[in-house]
Amino acid sequence: MKWFRFSLLILAATIIGSSDLMNYISVTERFIKPNLLLMLLVYFAISCETYDAIICSFAIGFAADITTTLIGPYFLSYGIIGTALTFIRQVIILKKTAQQAFAILLTGLVTQLLAIILMKFKISTVTNAGFFITFAMSMYSGILWFMLKVPVVGLGKWLGVGVHRFGMRMEERM
Amino acid sequence: MAHRKFKPSKLTLFIGLFLLGIIFLLLPQDVTSKVNFTFIDIFDYFLNMGTANQQQQNKTPGTFVSSQEYQRLQTAYANLDEQYSDLKSQFEKLSKLRLTETDPTTGLVIAKIVNRKEHQLIINRGSKDGLAAGQYVLGDNAVIGLIEQVSDDISSVQLITSTSCKMPIKISAPEINAYFNGTIQGDGKTGAKIFNIPQKYKIRTGNSVYAAERAGLLASSRIIGKISKCKLGAKSAVVWDIDVKPMYEFENLMDVAVVVIKKPEFK
Predict the structure, then answer these.
(1) B25/A118 CB distance under 8 A
(2) Degrees, nearest 5: CA angle B136-B140-B142
(3) What is the pTM of this model?
């Protein structure tokens, strides 16, 4: 894993994801946008070695936190759920794109729920987007994964991950 | 002696990062928000890339004004109308009672939006410019929300549509030349709601809703929006359930103005 390249990719995804450029692909009058960091979280969790996947999950969580006004909730929720996903993929190999898209949908819902719970520890009034927005955003991210999978896998190869297959490395299975 | 590269086990790594997350969570928001604001400060240009393009697209050539400009003028007109009513009322009082003239201490701090989230904006002005939590924020001349958090150079704005944004309001009823007081709260979607207004008050769809004056925060009433729906309460038929559509268009907001009222200095 090439960590400098990884940090550049995450920084770019964070900036693009929170910039007004995303308005161009937002849908409905509620401005539903895909969550790039969520897609990367699922990709790295199911493609990297477990050790690297844990670091990636927490790092992406930190990136998600940095665009809000709180530090901690997404760091923990992305870290915990990303780590859980790396262990889940050892049982259920998420090889097909549709399975990965579904994993993005579920991960989006669970991470947001956990983040909201954690936010309540820090501030009394949590401004959350609501279930519909979260569901729609996760679903949009899942649908967009069908288009973004190829470039993301290409970037993954550039970073030195996912070059073997989705699921465990052979040495992990031994 | 050969160097051994330190590599903790997966469990140690996870627990270490988890504890780091707990520390982040326990740190005061004032401390951690500096990281957020620094990020926004550094990448301000990139975060606003789409906005400049949108602004170009919205420019309408010819003698016609765009709907955005029309909306801005309408809002300005509504505010002027309200200010005129206030001044008329003051004039009537002054003609009866001799009052000492108060200094116009209201100031506006113009700020650029550097980032926007659902129901929240980040602006490039902070406590150095006199901003403080609770101050009113205007966009397109209408009240759009309140200052939520402030650092030295940057602040966050809680929009009127946020469920955690509450403020006192006045509903204008021009048919009977009266105002009704109440409290507005965001509905978490694209509008806001006003609760517990007795049904005996003659309120109609289309009536204007103004942010009420507050000592030290807002010197005169400012428009928030118009009533988009007014029906009998679902829980109690003696009160209205009122939906308010804000005057501003979220995607058209580029700059905001923060109402900063200078406190008088006592000698």
Answers:
(1) yes
(2) 45
(3) 0.63
